[in-house]
Amino acid sequence: MDSNNKTTKTRLTWFIPFRLASFILLFCTVVFWMGYPIFLRLPLILYASANLSFLLLIVFDRNRLLPGVTSAIVAINFLLEILCEAGIIYATGNVNSPFAALFILTIVSAALYYRLVGTLVMASIVSLAHAFIIWLGLAYASDRLSANALQTIFHSEDGVFYSILLHILIFYLVAFIAGYLGDRLRDKDMKLADTSLALRRAKLETDDILKHLNSGLISIDPLGHIVFFNRSAEMILGYREEEIRGIHCEAVFAERMPELSRCLMNSIRLKQAHVRSEIEIVNSEGKRIPLGLSISILTQPDHSIRGVIVIFSDLTEAKYLEAKIRTADRLAAIGELSASIAHEIRNPLTAISGSVEVLRAGLPVDGEDQRLMELIIKESKRLNKILSDFLTYAKIDRPAYTKVDLCHVIGEVIQLLYHYNVCTESVDIDFQSDKSVVYMVGDEDLLKQLLINLAVNACESLEGGRGFLRFRVETSEHPGKVVLFVQDNGSGIDKETLRQMYKPFYSTKKKGTGLGLAIVHRICSALEFSIKVDSEKGVGTTFRLEFSEFGIAQPDQAAPEDLMTSV
């Protein structure tokens, strides 16, 4: 449809001026040359009206919504033009009239609008009009307006018949040539319109792809001026394309990122590409970020440089992940070594503790010796607890996933809490759930250990041992998700502690091992739970855990370091 409209507009671009020229020529001939004869006034007025109607229709119907009306007016215009031309020929010498060439203008005009067949039809109408007007003139001259007047044409001594035949041959020859060329021109226009449309679409698609690349893309000309700058480049480098397009790259980048400017100019001067390199730049916020870039050289057929294309990306996240993987590998190796050492320490520690208890029971010790033996036994038990917690922390690697009734597990945890010294009768333990049975995917033992550690930590934060501990389960917030809140109204956690509370052996308590919340964090990482904490000093703390309600664990949760806090 777009191609046809384009072809129609191109055709009218040639047709309208040609029609105006024909009208002006006929008007001047009739009015100034012939003195505006009475018998041509009505045809000329109708012809002028048809021309005006055609032009007005073209102006107001720009979207070509009335093609049938336009074609009808054009046909009427041609017929009235032929009528005026016939009248001019009749009044200016008939067979000897020099204005017979006006018919050729009409045929050429028709070739600009109609195809070859239509042009030949127009030539036939012109030939009939030419023969008829000559016959009519001869008939009036001989006072015999009848069919017998045709004999005048064939018996005329002036060669009227051959003149008519010659004109008709010329009309058809012009019609054929003009129609053929018009068809070729029209086909070329259609192909050109299709090619132009395809080229525009390809350009739009290419520009759209380049604009929305996740990697930054810059192109510069052989002189170093910026030609193209996509959206990712704007976000990474902190410049806007409309502000720097056409400006020399050194003037743009030299101040904040001189290394990038130097790489670009070296590539132009040395005609040298860089497959992969890393540099460091300063973004618009003054933050130093690593940049991975690749520079390609565009060359002309004669091997002269045509420009440079730079593709780059922000390596901050990649560097962070790389460092995190290295840290995880290092911690895994340290964990294995530490677990082995803990086992080796635990065995002689048990022997020492047992031996001291035997000595205390068998020997009559008192005073300072008694106090020292009790201190050895107490510290041995504390050290044994630290080793037990550490071994628990180290072995949380591969959970056994099963279908777990969360409400039942919470009920068992509440029963166990009453056997802990920190959970006294003054602690109000509450459990709320929007469903009586909530199934989720996880390891029941690890989940139970996670909840116990959170609950004990909450009870220890209650000042004076008084307050509440609340477990709340919600399943309506996200379809297929279970959200568990563990809430207390204890002393709360300050911002500095929030940033470090998941680190192993970090504790703000005198008797704490610093592994309780580290174990919670490790279990959440192993089970791929999302954990967040909201705490306010002096008001209380709420831990929020989110996991899958049905039979598939969600592997797309945040990485361990991202499971941290939101205050």
Overview of the structural elements:
α4 (102-113) packs parallel to α7. The chain is built from 17 helices and 12 strands. The protein has 567 residues and is of the alpha+beta class. It starts with a helix and ends in a 19-residue tail after the last strand. It has helices spanning 2-33, 41-60, 67-91, 102-113, 116-141, 150-155, 160-211, 231-237, 241-244, 249-253, 258-270, 316-362, 368-394, 406-417, 444-460, 495-500, 516-527, and strands spanning 216-220, 226-229, 274-282, 288-299, 305-314, 402-405, 427-433, 439-442, 467-474, 481-488, 530-536, 540-548. Helix content is 57%, strand content 15%. The chain has 4 domains: 2-196, no CATH class; 216-314, Beta-Lactamase, CATH 3.30.450; 320-394; 402-562, Histidine kinase-like ATPase, C-terminal domain (Heat Shock Protein 90), CATH 3.30.565. The longest helix is centred in the N-terminal third of the chain and has 52 residues, at 160-211. The model is unreliable at 551-567 (pLDDT under 50). The strands form 3 sheets. The chain has a 5-stranded antiparallel sheet.
